[in-house]
Each structure stands twice: as C-alpha cells, then as structure tokens.
C-alpha cells in the first residue's frame, strides 16, 4: 500500500505534520477509510489519509498539520479573502433584504422597521413555503428576538454574521485567528474582535448569552477543549449553536473520497449527528436539538461531482428537488445544525 508523501505547501516549504492514528473521542485506533487524498483547492501539496472510528462515528485526518502550521493552510481561504462589506444596494438586494426581514419578523419575532412594504409582505408569505425560511433562519442561527443580549461568534471570518446580528439589535463580539480579518471587521462594525485561535478563547474575561460556531469545529486542533471553553464562557442557561459538515450525509455516501466536505488538510475532523451529540454532552451541555440541513446540498453535490470527474468520467448522480430532499433526507443532509444549552 502506498504511503502518503510528505505534505508540502504550494510554494515548496514543508508543512510539518504529526501522526494522529487515535480516535479523538475514545482514543482507540481507527480504521483507514481513504488514502492519497489531495487538497481540493490545490493550495497545499501532498497526499492525506482519513481515518474513521466506527463506535464513535467520527472521521479525522492522519497525519495532521502541527498546530503552528495551521495558519499556513489558510493563505487564500475564501472566508479570509472577503472584506467585511458585503451585499450592497440595488433593486435585487433590497428585495432580498425585504424577504429576509419578513422571515425574521414572522418566525423569529424581530421588530419590523424600515422595510419596503411589498418585499416584506412577499417575504412574510414566501417564508411559509419553507424554502426561504430554511435559508434565512440559518443565517441567524435560528436565534429569536430576545433569546439573549450578548453574542460571541467564534471564527467570525469576514464578519457578515456579526453585521447581521448587530443590525438585529444584538451586542456582538468575535474571535478570529486571522489578524487582517480582525482589523477589517472590528473597524467596519465597531465591535470587539479578538485576534486569537479558538483554543485560547478561555482567556476571555466575559460571559455571553449565545456562542456560535459556523463551519469552525471541523478546523479545530482540540474541539473538546474548545467546547469546554464555550461552556465556561456561557452564562448558565446560555446557548451554543453549531453548524458543521455532516460526515453522515447522503453526499458523503455517494461521492466517497471525492466528497467536498472532506476538505483535506484543513478539516482535521468531521462529525456525524451521533459523534457531535456525544462530544457536546461530554462537555456538559444539554442538547436542545440536533439535525441535518439540506440548504447547501446542491452546492456540495455540484462541487463533489466536479472533484469526482477528476477521478473518473462515470458520474451519474441526480439530486432530488430542494424541498423534496428536505422531506426525505432526515439525518442525511450535508450540514449538521446543533443547539445545546449550558444547564441553568
Ligand atoms: Zn472512537
């Protein structure tokens, strides 16, 4: 069997790695699921391996980049390229904003203000179809008006979520390891953005009503420690909201090693509903709900199909229409969305 070659950056400098053969949850030796995987963005050269623990239902990278190499993996990562200013004016954006506000008002009780009447009422109506509700509710982590007062977004990237929640009346703060993104977001929004990796968030001297991690936990060197830190930084009764790729998805089953969610070598671990539940409960949280979401299935399928074409010409996979998929997928959507509470 072919051994993975020493991973290197595109510029040719070596990426230091460390062996990680043991399950992050139960420490048993996992099975090798895939070998010789390469970076889908071709930023980091080298071949990578994914292991799987059947009893814990978790997947992880072995070997993995050492902790001090992690920043070098994100030189041109999409969320670190964008400035904080997003969206803009124009008829389409104003109409979309009206739809969004209509959904927020109808389903999450945010007050109606400065809304364009027609788009708001259309949004209120279209929200009942489920299509817009699922998309727009996800952008605010399903948080209702007065679910709390202060919110911390871990890995806030370009600050689009912080901007949205500040507009809706929340007092917001962010954590972001990329110093440039920190400066841009804190200046554009005039909110505190702490320049640190999530593994250092326990140093913050403050507690929050809500902590959010959107597509962050799969990148963490020590997800267990970060969840324990979240627990301490939440007020009793506070809420932790997590969105992460679903390794138990239908797309992973269909595309296997070409599944877009693998994202080697930046995703250090990938969860199923079962393994994320176990990790959250192990950190002391009460699970309020955990399920899969199909909102981004089409995007993931499209990119996975493209990756698979590099491996084979025989790709004959069709996807059910969006709302049909939502009804039939159950736990098989491409994202896991979880809401957990620190006990009062
Ligand atoms: Zn295990």
Structural features, described:
By secondary structure, the protein is α/β, with parallel strands linked by helices. The chain folds into 2 domains: 73 residues, no CATH class; 196 residues, Vaccinia Virus protein VP39 (Rossmann fold). The chain has 11 helices and 15 strands. It has a 7-stranded mixed beta sheet with strand order 10-9-8-11-12-15-14, with helices on both faces. A 4-stranded antiparallel beta sheet has the order 3-5-6-13. Strand 9, helix 6 and strand 10 form a beta-alpha-beta unit. The structure holds zinc ion. The site of zinc ion (ZN) has 7 residues, from loops.
Furnish the topology, listing elements before pairings.
Elements: E1 8-9, E2 17-18, E3 31-37, E4 44-45, E5 48-53, E6 58-61, E7 64-65, H1 78-81, H2 91-108, H3 117-126, H4 131-139, E8 150-154, H5 160-167, E9 171-175, H6 179-189, E10 193-194, E11 208-214, H7 223-233, E12 234-245, H8 250-255, E13 269-271, H9 273-282, E14 286-293, H10 297-311, H11 322-329, E15 335-341
Parallel strand pairs: 8-9, 8-11, 9-10, 11-12
Antiparallel strand pairs: 1-4, 2-7, 3-5, 5-6, 6-13, 12-15, 14-15
Helix pairs in contact: 2-3, 2-4
This protein binds zinc ion.
């Amino acid at each position: 069997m072919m051994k993975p070659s020493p991973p290197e950056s595109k510029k040719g400098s070596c990426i230091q790695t460390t062996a990680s053969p043991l399950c992050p949850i139960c420490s048993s030796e996992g099975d090798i699921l895939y070998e010789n995987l390469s970076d889908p963005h071709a930023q980091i050269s080298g071949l990578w391996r994914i292991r799987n623990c059947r009893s814990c239902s978790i997947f992880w990278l072995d070997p993995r980049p050492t902790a001090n190499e992690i920043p070098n993996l994100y030189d041109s990562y999409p969320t670190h390229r964008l400035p904080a200013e997003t969206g803009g004016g124009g008829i389409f954006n104003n109409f979309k904003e009206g739809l969004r506000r209509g959904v927020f008002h109808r389903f999450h009780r945010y007050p109606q203000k400065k809304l364009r009447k027609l788009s708001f009422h259309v949004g209120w109506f279209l929200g009942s179809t489920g299509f817009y509700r699922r998309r727009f509710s996800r952008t605010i982590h399903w948080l209702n008006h007065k679910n709390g007062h202060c919110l911390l977004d871990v890995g806030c990237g370009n600050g689009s979520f912080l901007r949205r929640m500040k507009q809706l009346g929340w007092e917001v703060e962010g954590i972001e390891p990329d110093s440039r993104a920190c400066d841009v977001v804190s200046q554009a929004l005039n909110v505190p953005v702490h320049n640190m990796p999530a593994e250092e968030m326990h140093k913050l001297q403050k507690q929050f009503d809500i902590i959010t991690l959107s597509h962050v936990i799969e990148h963490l060197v020590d997800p267990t420690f970060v969840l324990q830190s979240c627990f301490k930084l939440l007020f009793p009764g506070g809420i932790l909201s997590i969105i992460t790729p679903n390794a138990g998805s239908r797309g992973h089953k269909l595309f296997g090693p070409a599944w877009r969610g693998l994202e080697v070598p930046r995703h250090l671990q990938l969860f199923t509903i079962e393994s994320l539940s176990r990790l959250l409960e192990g950190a002391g949280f009460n699970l309020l709900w955990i399920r899969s979401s199909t909102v981004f299935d089409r995007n993931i399928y499209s990119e996975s199909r493209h990756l698979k074409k590099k491996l084979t010409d025989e790709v004959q996979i069709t996807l059910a229409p969006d709302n049909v998929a939502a009804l039939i997928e159950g736990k098989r959507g491409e994202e896991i969305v979880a809401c957990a509470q620190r006990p009062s």
